[in-house]
Amino acid sequence: MNKSQFLNSVNIEDKNLLSNIYNKIQIAEKTDKIIFIDNFLPPAVWNQISNLCENYQTKLFKNGVFKNADRRMLSFSSYDEPVTYPIIMLKISNKSKFSRLDHKDYLGAIMSLGIKREKLGDLIIQNDVCYAPVCNDISNYIINNLRKIKNCPCDVSEYDYMLNDLPERKLLEKTIISTSFRLDSMVSAICNVSRSNSVELISKGQTLVNYFQCEKKDKVIKNNDTLTIRGYGKFMVADIIGSTQKGRLKVIIKQYI
After folding, report:
1. I need a surface site. Which of 51, 135, 149, 214 has the fewest CB within 10 A?
2. Which helix (H) or strand (E) holds 188?
3. Which CATH number do you get for residue 33?
């Protein structure tokens, strides 16, 4: 498969990223060295790359540190998976006894330092501590510059994830009532907003389906799809458990917390 075919085989807009990935695969094949992609990529990207790599002798490996991580760093090797990746786990502790911080607070604070989202893996919060895998070239910068999140002082240090236990992602399960599996109906039910407000969220590009921006309000959502709604959070559609007397759907969703 040549470069043009590779670029046209993956459904993402960032062709520069794809070009970089293709070049890294070529380098791995020619040098027999382990080559890393120094970004954390979402499932919609690494799933497609995984399928394409079946056409190459070079093997693809993925590491997001956490079990069932969404965002993962890729490596290419002709041999076995690398033992270590250029990933540093940061432990960010909220030192305030009066204010609690959530996922968007930690993420927003890190990105306010001028760091791009793809330099960060999944963030998991447990007991007022955020565990954040980051590319190793930015870890010291975050440690030296992240002093406060909102009005809460914080402490940032490295956490050896190879030797210590890791927290597991928690999902909050709840049942919503939706008129249909259309995207606008699901967003309305999940966010508890009117249909017109849900359409506005979609039209403004604030809704992602399986990590891709989606502006089609009539897109049909399926089980195990992931919806990311900016300002509201990330949700997985788990199952339909029945319907109401008026014929509306009872749907179990799981919110990432």
Report:
1. 51
2. helix 183-191
3. 3.30.1370
Q: Which helix (H) or strand (E) holds 31?
A: helix 15-31
Kind and range of the H or E element at 75?
Answer: strand 73-77
Q: How far apart are CA 46 and CA 52, in angstroms?
A: 10
DSSP bridge partners of 237: 253
The closest of 156, 161, 131 to 143, measured between CA atoms, is 156
How much is the pTM? 0.77
- Residues spanned by the domain of 203: 171-256
Q: β-strand 87-94 against 152-158: which pairing, if any?
A: antiparallel
How many residues does this entry show for the chain? 257
How far apart (Å, rounded) are the C-alpha atoms in residues 177 and 192?
10
Helix (H) or strand (E) holding 126: strand 124-126
Task: Provide the token pair at 195.
Answer: 């249909």
Confirm whether 82 is domain-assigned: no
Strands 226-229 and 212-213: unpaired
* Tens-digit pLDDT string for the chain (257 aa): 788 888 888 887 788 898 999 999 999 989 889 999 999 998 888 988 988 887 778 899 999 999 889 999 999 998 888 989 999 999 999 999 899 999 889 999 999 999 999 999 999 999 899 999 999 999 999 999 999 999 999 999 999 999 988 988 888 999 999 999 999 999 999 999 999 999 999 999 999 998 788 999 999 999 889 999 998 988 999 988 888 888 899 999 999 87
Q: 106: number of CA atoms within 13 Å, CB side?
A: 26
